[in-house]
């Protein structure tokens, strides 16, 4: 082989080597650029997430002040269509928007009150607490859903919250849940949220969705009243319950349709309606009804730099007009 051919061969090898090095460096450069871009985007997302958390905190404080102002001007007398209630307030941000909506969260049966029924069954509470079980069973019946057994469902909820391992009639304690494909135990505590019902025997997701307008799981186990001026058509079974079932759900809806603009002045005013006046006094449980709100729910939706956050805050309205946040949940 001549020197000239050898030289050309070496030059070709060198060229291929250089091209391979350039290609490798290009790949490395692309990888570095991608990593830097991903890191930058991640930093921006983290920054936006942190900023969104601050917006949530600010929205909570604003909501508390707004509710206190609403309660102060109305005496907690809230009614359907009231200005400032159930109407979203939108606040524009640089790079997003905050939407805050308040609703009367008074109208629901607090399932955590059944814990008193559990204590009563164990001889650990007053006879008054035993009526809570009867109320819950009646409400399940008034809900008008097919395939329900109110007695066994109530037992299952009580068993979930009580500290013992003795199941009620048709109920379920640890021995039942331990035999499931994915075993678990009862909590022995009040429900943290209504979604916890999904873990309790008999409560299928579609059933919970159907009962959602009627039920809630609030930290307090005190007796809860319903605001007659914000009850909706879906919540009519609660009014039937307050009439001990002597008022049908359909008749309860008719009563709510007669509600005047601005609501009834008092519970006694509503009781003057013929449909209610004809019910025996001992069946009309006026102590379950009110024209004031005891709880107000606030939903905050934040859209900021591509992020979307949804938070629900539950406020308790105290007798002195102050409000206290008793639960915060992230919904999305």
Task: Give a verbal description of the structure.
Its main location: membrane. This is Type II secretion system protein K. InterPro entries: GspK (IPR005628), GspK_central_sf (IPR038072), T2SSK_SAM-like_1st (IPR049031), T2SSK_SAM-like_2nd (IPR049179). Pfam families: T2SSK, T2SSK_1st. Residues 107-219 form the T2SS protein K first SAM-like domain. β1 and β2 form a beta hairpin. It is built from 10 helices and 9 strands. The strands form 3 sheets. It has a 5-stranded antiparallel beta sheet, with helices on one face. It has a two-stranded parallel ribbon with strand order 3-4. 43% of the residues lie in helices and 15% in strands. α2 crosses α3, α2 crosses α4 (150-161) and α3 (127-142) packs across α7 (236-242). By secondary structure, it is of the alpha/beta class. The radius of gyration is 30 Å and the shape is globular. Among the domains are: 42-105 and 294-331, GSPII I/J protein-like (Pantoate--beta-alanine Ligase, Chain: A,domain 2); 113-213, EpsJ-like (Ribonucleotide Reductase Protein R1, domain 1).
Concise account of the structure shown:
By secondary structure, this protein is an alpha/beta fold.
Entry keywords:
332 residues; alpha/beta; Pantoate--beta-alanine Ligase, Chain: A,domain 2; Ribonucleotide Reductase Protein R1, domain 1; two-stranded parallel ribbon; 9 strands; 15% strand; globular; cell membrane; transmembrane helix; membrane; T2SSK_SAM-like_1st; transport
